[in-house]
């Protein structure tokens, strides 16, 4: 394990890509007594300012760990994480506090975790502004405006217990955007809701993105959400594996595999199974792509691989 951490530290370098969020070779190891869990194993991710994107992946793949780090609640073991110019590994206590109050907003899955039960919706939204020094009168006006933009103005004087789950989550989006964060993080915000309420909450997130200017990262298992964003990144075993890009309105999904900064890629599991790829594989340089062949495939006739430079002559196993 130490080797993994050392390698990640050695690989520290300025990320080539600009982005509002840049994760570079991010590692998070949880140690409990005798057990070590590698929740993030060298994760790379770049999110451009203004994006509204989804993170998906099997349970335990590291999604919540990543969001906790980006929200400033947790620290990575190694690697680099930059958000809006803040180096999350180097931040001291004071900067971290300011970062959590102003730069990022967070919406949790559990509706009860987002709002204080004894405050009205308006008071809940106004509260974060108290901690950033916004004058009292301005807080109320901004809170009312946010509730209006997010379609829950009619809830302003109700307490959370008097709101439906979907209304609570929309108010939670207003709370999370009260201090105009550059980045809005949401962990399964529609997880406890029916389809109609989930759609309303996602519409609120989209408004936070389009009208309030927040860059949105949403962890979700909900196909309704992942099917509507332009980019969905899949995390597998603590790394980003594939990305799905869609056109406007979710049209024309196309799946890509992500090549990390060291040139490594994770093949989709169904390709690995379908072509019996195990352990050692043979790579071939084709004129316009790279071929991946199971070990044991006959040595290609030409210098460039089984198909030769003129194109395929047979089934193409794992062409990438
Ligand atoms: N505080 C912790 N201590 C020890 N192990 C942890 C801790 N938090 C998470 N893990 C482990 O880290 C791995 C990644 O967990 P994480 O919660 O990030 O996954 P996830 O993709 O969000 O899963 P889910 O979709 O179920 O929420 C899991 O194996 C989990 O058991």
Automatic annotation (TrEMBL):
Q: Where is this region: Disordered?
A: 286-320
Concerning Pfam families, the annotation shows: ABC_tran (PF00005)
Task: Give GO MF terms, alphabetically.
Answer: ATP binding; ATP hydrolysis activity; transmembrane transporter activity
Cross-referenced PROSITE patterns, in alphabetical order? ABC_TRANSPORTER_1, ABC_TRANSPORTER_2
Keyword Signal recorded: no
Q: Which GO terms describe its cellular component?
A: plasma membrane
Q: What SMART domains does this protein map onto?
A: AAA (SM00382)
Keyword Membrane appears in the UniProt entry: no
Tell me the protein's name.
ABC transporter ATP-binding protein
What organism does this protein naturally occur in?
Answer: Streptomyces montanus
